[in-house]
Amino acid sequence: MVASLAQLLDLMRHHGATRIYAKNLAPNDNSKNQVYLGGDFSALNIIPHGEIYSDDTAIAGAVRDRAKARVSFFWVDEGGKHRAPDAGLILYPKYPEVRMSGFLKGCREAPSHIMRVRNEGRLLVLGITAEGDVLGYAADAAHPVAVEVRAYQWPMIGVFLELPLHAGQADSPKDRLLNELRRIWRLNWIASQKLAADGTKQPYSARNGGGYTLEAELGITPNGYAEPDFMGWEVKQYGVRDFVRFAPKSPVTLMTPEPTGGIYRDKGVAEFMRRFGYEDQSGKEDRINFGGRYDCLRGLHGLTGVRMTMTGFDAQTGKITNLDGALSLIDANDTVAASWSFKGMMAHWNRKHAQAAYVPSLFRTPPPEYSYGPSVLLCEQTDFLLFLKAFAAGSVYYDPAIKVENASSAKPNIKRRSQFRVAHGDLPKLYHLHEFVRL
């Protein structure tokens, strides 16, 4: 029997948890009413899940506007891991909110006596593994785990309490990250490097070594679920010209999803480039480009003849009005050149961590070296709805770099690069909380 919080944390780690959260359950948090995970979509960046799909099930004769995503969910106890095959998330865009359901069905070992009732003081603990599994443990109000969790003021991420991986850890993951970044700042210049698969640091000479060098110093290796992270924090470096003004050299690339609709998807990149591309402006022969800035505030681009639109989102209320909405490049005749569905974009956005640290860096050569700055931007609780709001306002924009080399040959060389970017100063618009910390 799990008799303490320390034992539960040990059990979660034993089954692969790298992050552990808890939620104090309200009376309505039960198998009948589902478990409420927040009044926005920020929980999607904490709970790993599968593809988001529409649920057209009619209830009382009416089709409800909602979407679902499966969760690889297991209840854990001293007897092992027990799969709950029907567990998943439900997204309600009209409210908006996210709930978890199906966590008891098909699992005989599930804690039904706790999750079916409306008793006060119940606790749900969730462990997140590097592979994207979710481990669950439920306790009633009198259970030692629930009593211990209530007795301490834990850091909060949305509706979740953030628990440590080990009992007795006095410093939070944020504290440990800041201590590591402070240590790295004090190292001053660091040789460009990249962490090998076996965990050893290897020299790295290419010019994109700023992120690799920082990750190597933090001991970060890529995992199967999301981007490289440090105890649940996404860590991103950005180049600056000095550590006085911290002026970024370039905007932040948020994600690089390929279009899910339009001519680009239906007829191929070659046809898209034939219709909307243009000859290279610097005089490179036999090359066709597709570039420029595209946001919801601009008209038709002078070289490509397309503009960006968005359907299915109300910028005034900040709510999705149609889950089948999309971001679309259209021409003067409203032909869709390329589009990105909300569901496809959410799949990319939800891989971002709920917490991110943006670290400035300087570069010099020879030899290639990096120095990391004394001021760090910490952002917490990202949300796809904030992304859509920033996109509607023109802060987030599409900045492609697609090209066709040897365009007239039988085998042209097509290079795809669809990227969504934001100015560094607009990053806080994508999070509910942010702060600048001097190391």
UniProtKB/TrEMBL annotation:
Key words, A-Z: Endonuclease, Hydrolase, Nuclease
GO terms assigned for molecular function: endonuclease activity
Gene3D superfamilies: MvaI/BcnI restriction endonuclease, catalytic domain
Residues annotated as domain MvaI/BcnI restriction endonuclease: 179-431
InterPro entries tied to this protein: MvaI_BcnI, MvaI_BcnI_cat
Keyword check for Hydrolase: yes
UniProt-recorded name of the protein: MvaI/BcnI family restriction endonuclease
